[in-house]
Design brief:
This protein has 219 residues and is of the alpha+beta class. It has 10 helices and 7 strands. The chain is globular.
């Protein structure tokens, strides 16, 4: 009997020692991450709400997937609620504003848009319609495949007016942007053979080493 009591006491002491151990570095990191979490709200219009929601809620789901934030649309109050870390909220807000801006015209993308989540790609004018697809279906299919957000945009306040190229903004992580970029370039090459060779120096090493593996996350 005594030996059983001693064993139980030893186990109890062992549990106490485990409970009193200092928290691991991982748990402290998780706490720090939690402290970075917050909520932002954006007041929107009826028309904006329809654009953000998209058909069957797909646009809202895409925005949340690309930004990695939680996005809730309160249609009755016309309020958009964004939950996540500081960078997740910033990106989600930026993406939502970009989608809403498309309702009234081209989006003007400035340097402030780049939070290490943006690739800008020149698309020849003669290939823009082909890359966009009917009702934007080709771009939407690439977004779905690579978890990215893509739209043609203005950079210097002018778009289309006699320009040889349109700027395509691709938002997402390194791997997603790279996959989307190559898929678009493949389509461009169909319409404008030899175009990839012309911009090879610009595209080949773009974002090289910027992901954790140093391989664009593709290996």
């Amino acid at each position: 009997m005594m030996s059983g009591d001693v064993a139980n006491k030893d186990r109890s002491r062992s549990r106490d020692r485990k409970d009193s151990r200092p928290r691991s570095r991982d748990s402290r990191r998780l706490e720090a991450k939690d402290e970075d979490h917050g909520v932002d709200t954006i007041k929107i219009t009826d028309d904006d709400a329809a654009f953000i929601l998209g058909k069957g809620g797909k646009t809202k789901e895409k925005l949340a997937r690309v930004s990695r934030a939680e996005i809730e649309l309160f249609e009755r109050d016309l309020v958009l609620e964004i939950r996540g870390t500081k960078i997740q909220r910033k990106r989600a807000k930026k993406y939502c504003e970009g989608v809403m801006a498309q309702r009234t015209g081209p989006v003007n993308v400035t340097e402030e848009y780049d939070d290490d989540d943006l690739t800008m790609l020149n698309v020849p004018q003669e290939a823009v319609g082909f890359v966009t697809g009917r009702a934007g279906n080709f771009l939407r299919s690439i977004e779905e495949e690579w978890s990215t957000l893509m739209f043609f945009c203005e950079v210097d306040g002018s778009r289309g007016r006699g320009r040889e190229h349109e700027k395509l903004a691709i938002f997402g992580d390194v791997r997603g942007r790279r996959g989307s970029e190559l898929k678009v370039l493949s389509a461009v090459e169909t319409k404008v053979p030899g175009y990839l060779e012309k911009i090879r120096h610009e595209v080949l090493d773009r974002d090289k080493g910027k992901d954790e593996t140093g391989t664009w996350g593709t290996d």
